[in-house]
Fold this sequence. Notes:
By secondary structure, the chain is α+β, with helices and mostly antiparallel strands. 28% of the residues lie in helices and 28% in strands. It has helices at residues 3-15, 76-83, 87-94, and strands at 27-32, 35-39, 48-55, 58-63, 70-73. The protein starts with a helix and ends in a 9-residue tail after the last helix.
Amino acid sequence: MSLVSTTLHRLSRAVHVAPAVTLADVEVVAVGDGDWRISLPGGSPFALLGFVTLSDGRYRVQSLTRPFAEFEADSLEHAIDALRPPAADASAILAGIRPARAA
């Protein structure tokens, strides 16, 4: 292999490696028997991400970041993770700006 083709080969392999996504910390508050409110910490009125409700052994997720979207999960942890945004988006969400990919 020539130097140019070796370099291009290395670059093409590097492009396909995606960095790991770090997820934001969230607050989980029980608001009833089998109901939880999920939000970003900080007390902003925009911090509310959604709600999780336990019904018939399934965790139903109602997302405020994706209006009219409802999900189901097998565990509370999976339900919370469905609402947890990437850490890079947390400051924008707290400022009232919803990232386009969350819509």
